[in-house]
Amino acid sequence: MSHTTVIPASTYAGYPAIMTPHQLDTMRARAQRDPDGFWLEQARRVYWHRKPTQAFTGSFEGDVSIRWFEDGQLNVSVCCIDRYLTDRGDQVALISHREGRQASEKITYSMLHERVCRLANALTHLGVEKGQRVAICLPMVSEAVVAMLACARIGAVHVVLFGGFSAEGIAERLVDSGTVAVITANVARRGAKLVPFKETIDEALRKAGSASSVHSVLVVSTSDDPVLMLPGRDYNYHDFVDEFEADFVPVLMNAEDPLFLLYTSGSTGKPKAIVHACGGYIVWAAYTMGMVYTHQPGDVLWCTADVAWITGHTSVVYGPLANGGTTMISDSLPTHPYPGRWWDLVDQYKVTMLFTAPTAVRTMMAEGDEVVKKRDLRSLRLLGVAGEPISPDAWQWYHDVVGNKRCPVVDTWWQTETAGIVLGPMPGVQALKPGSATMPLPGVEMTLIDQQGGAVTGPGEGALCISRSWPGQARTIWGDHERFRQTYFTMAPGRYFTGDGAKRDSDGYYWITGRMDDVINIAGHRLGTAEVEEVLAEDHRIVESAAVGVPHPVKGQGLVVFVIPRKDAAGEVTEQALSRLIASQLGRYAAPEAVYLVPDLPRTRSGKIVRRLLRKIAEGQIENFGDLSALNDMAIVKMLCDRVWGQM
Ligand code: WT7
């Protein structure tokens, strides 16, 4: 790290920074001195029906309980809509761009209020009650945003599901969450491809059978493509919803009532639903987005994330709206139907803040500078990335070519579990270092834990932990609090373990080194290698498998799978078929780079698969394997190298 570039904050002298470096230091010190007072002050960023008098009231010890602002009452849809109706009812809250459509939708705060209320009435009419779960499985259309806010308004808990999941994956999640209603689309267009959303939901509900509690399905028609509708269960969204009254009195929620569940991958195969609570989440969304994406009147924020990820919740919907901003969604792809598609949209909608994943930056970088330089990107004033590591050269390209060296690039580190930005710079206030997500926001107490379990002081490396709760912290794993405790609070007792490793330099900047568990990150999508192995384990022709992540130039990481077929099935299983099976069960992003059929896997004497070695072989680092003395059979190493890299 001795040659890192440092870009001083003064580079962006024209940037409308919201505070001075000194004020930021003061804020940090205040948060440290009096965390409760600090967070109660930050809680005033949102509208409360009853103001909280307590900040954190839980504990990281024992059973672990996370509770914030417990005696406060509010409704999150009011924080995001109603409070802005009087002074900016006519301001655009949501721009929805759809490929292949002439005009985009521009939805003002007043219109958003109307639409959210109609759906709130419709859901109530269907019998959806406070506390019940509603699944939202939609492409990037305005109804997705409306649906989340309508759930919040009636106190229902939304569960946004990724449209790329298989029917099995959706069925499992509908059952696990006890969902009672689903809001979906007939189909979605992804570039030239048509993705059958409704058909997949139908199949999921068939598979779930009596284990499912779903009684109603609302279907948004995104096109003329017809789908089967089951009378009494399925409703055409607009035919049904648009008839309801455009006003709905928000249901009063306790701060700790759940707002949403969001499924994410962990190191075991079973999907886990992270639970976020109304009060803490919305304060945290308003705070983190307000600090890093410092919204000013006239700003248009385009975060390209799908609503089904945490970024889609916090950076697309709740963060911008809680701050009274204008957020944009689009179902476009960066390079389809032609290279530079996103740059044209930035110009067309005068996007001022662009937030995307490093994988998209790398994809667009690969098309060459000319594609960018031909376009007018003067509307941009802030660029952001999140979700996976960005290399210093991709960062620099984004900064120099896209931002024309004018716009700060904010690399923000966070997780489904943290709900909002944890590491990230305040633009125009802090110096930037390409490749580093800078440092924690005020109020976050980050600690690196070394191999002996002690806290690293000063510069060093270790497991990235957070030592004090923050309002947006996940409350639990739905239906499995013990798994929550075990996953996050046992590695470093008394602290939250993120799953990541990191280095801290002498300026206190953090450099993420990657996951320390069996989770890989493909194009910003988290995937547990155990999920892949579980899919394969269900195929009776397969004895065992091992999945590993390898570096990939565009996706960051790619998936490579080693599979032992049963001897009597050797001719039947093909690498292509297994690859298709994984993609169809887990989602298209999980499609492996390679599947290798092998007679055995490297193991220790106790039979444990040596993944470190498999990773090296898959990556091609076959000159230096390190210490192999624990291996029970050395011949397997040569066999695997020959299999992957040809006869040597
Ligand atoms: C994991 C969380 C940003 C939220 C969306 C992803 C990795 C996230 C960064 C970053 C390096 C990053 C971590 C983390 N990650 N942001 N800026 N630099 N790595 O949320 O799906 O829950 O994934 O993404 O490994 O643990 P998620």
TrEMBL record:
The keyword Ligase applies. It comes from the Bacteria. Its EC number is 6.2.1.1. GO terms for biological process: acetyl-CoA biosynthetic process from acetate. Belongs to the ATP-dependent AMP-binding enzyme family. Residues 531-608 form the AMP-binding enzyme C-terminal domain. Residues 86-469 form the AMP-dependent synthetase/ligase domain. GO terms for molecular function: acetate-CoA ligase activity; AMP binding; ATP binding. NCBIfam families: Ac_CoA_lig_AcsA, PRK00174.1. This is Acetate--CoA ligase. It is an enzyme of class 6 (ligase). Keywords: Acetylation, ATP-binding, Ligase, Nucleotide-binding. Residues 25-80 form the Acetyl-coenzyme A synthetase N-terminal domain. It comes from Acetobacter vaccinii.
